[in-house]
Description:
- The protein starts with 5 loop residues before the first helix and ends in a 22-residue tail after the last helix.
- It contains 31 helices and 15 strands.
Amino acid sequence: MTFFTKKIKEASDCLFSCIPEICLERAEIITDVYKKNEHLPYQIKRAVALDKILSGISVFIKNYELIVGNQASKPRGAPVFPEYAVHYLEDEIDQFDKRPGDIFMISEENKIKLKKIIKYWKGKTVRERNYPMLPEETIKAGEDGIGVIDADWALQNGDGHIAVDYPKLINKGLKYNINFCEKKLIELDLSKDPENIKKRLFYKSIILANNSVIKFAKRYAKLAEEMAKSEPNKNRKAELEKISEICSHVPENPARSFYEALQSIWFIQLTLQLETNGHSISIGRFDQFLYPLYEKDIKQGNLTRNKAIELIQLFRIKLNEINKLKSWPTTEFVAGYVMAQNLTIGGQTSDYKDASNELSYIMLEATESLKLPQPQLTARIAKVTSDKFLRRCAELILTGGGFPALFNDDIIIPSMVRRGVKKEDALNYCLVGCVEPSVQGKWGGRYGACFFNMVKVFELAINNGKDPRTGITLKKGIGDLSTFKTFDDLLKAFAIQINYYIKHHIIRDNVQDYTWEELTPTPLCSSLVDDCLNRGKEIKQGGAIYDFTGGETCGIANLANSLAAIKKLVFEDKLITGKEMMDIIKNNFEGTRGKEVRQIFINKVPKYGNDIKYVDDIAVSAFSIFLKGVEKYKNTRFGRGPIGCTWHPSTASVTANIPMGLIVGATPDGRKSGEPLADVESATHGTDKNGPTAMLKSASKIEHIYMSGGSILNLRLFKSSL
């Protein structure tokens, strides 16, 4: 049975009636701060900017709200982050409200203001700092050239992809961080170690940033107090007084109740996304770290189950108010107002027992009743997971919407341990973003790296390294499809190209990390990740305990099916020559012969996703060239403190398979030029004929032990079949 109060209906109606608008409050404030404080070190400047933003943006409390705090002047409004990039703001200023999707309204008055903001930031942005550091070859390998790697979305954004230490927040409060840093400042001897000069800046920025959030919360405390004075309704008056009391206490101090904990978490979740427009800032293991407060309040009679559901529903609605403006090319890669704030439930405890509890079921119920896209709900599944929890997850999946996503502890935990993560931390993993495993409050790695187009690499391999679309050759191959004598020659040609473009993938993203480190420190975020405070280092300086970097790939099915078609039809059955196959795909299967051969490609060759050893083995061997080629490289934090600092891949490509397909010509699997690539680890549409369990078996053969960056397999089932 779904629990749905009048208050929840009002909140939902308000959310759905809000048309996303561009809000310039943050952009105007940060521009003013930078104009007036150009002399300040970036670490301090960013903290000052956050303080001014949180002191200056609009605050309001809606009539139905129990959890308060807003990032823009209107719900679902999108702040602007000009310090990262302004080129798309200038190019698309008259198109934001005319897009085919992810529309944002902007008034003519705000267009004039935005143009002034753009003028100041030209030549000063993260994006503009990035390009002069890149080798010309790396640029040509990217979206401005061949397009094997696409990092433009990262150039416009902060990092994100993190779950901060919310357990520490609710148990210690921000005052703990401030006191810690004040003590460290007293202890620092700047003459003893030159690094202490940097640490001094770090600790001062932490104090500024944490105090700014406390002051922000107290603005709501004051507003609620004033509203309560004139509120005629006794029930609402009491609610406002309670809001005032809570916001006066948290997040400065430890949370005393379940309600206070939710409000404290929300203030940080909100302000992290004002500090940086990083993607995929996630909640972590919600049902684990909040359960003690829930249990205490229930036992003491201070909370009922229904009240907890209402608070969680309101919390979920607030998460859906978070919004972000992206360029249209970036939007195509992550369409649908995606913020990817993940919330994890279930899994197992540190002593290998089923971790699901009453809060796990409440979150499933709240998700089912609201049917909202945020937060993305993840359920960890292990051998010890109860049938009751697994069945309840299945019942929710049956309603549509794709929640909860299911993740296998028995694969993910060993893959993390293989990277050097301590077993007890791996057991406590959560998901950030779409599918990326992380250790909450200890993980500073970067997941939002380049999109890597493996099918484009395949196209280069069969064309002697030359891109048919642009005519560019960056890495000459060992021949083309018409000259290969064996299938092994083709795999060798593919390996040469993929290893070459992996290098540029690494260069591109490491340059991005250095730019973020220099220009956009994140003192608030760093203060909530261990072991930044003890080390006196930002996340990007090596402050976190664990640190890994990973990009996103897609098109496994196209790659496997294309290789299988060549192996079977050219080298084994000899139904077609390599040259004829080249000519046919170059002509996009046009003409009688092209159409005839395309049907052979589609219907006469085994397809990935059907549990067929022939093609699945090809998928594994080809993708493993990439998996094993990436992990030998280091990121910018290597040798600076954290465990790891290597690269690990992911298939978290969201909707990138659509724009990625636009730059790839026809392929031997029967796909026509410009058509979308296959979705993540799923089969090409219409080619999985043997049912969902066969699809699962095909995908499970991929060497996921190397995939500690996260894996996605999307299955779409007819409701009638369930």
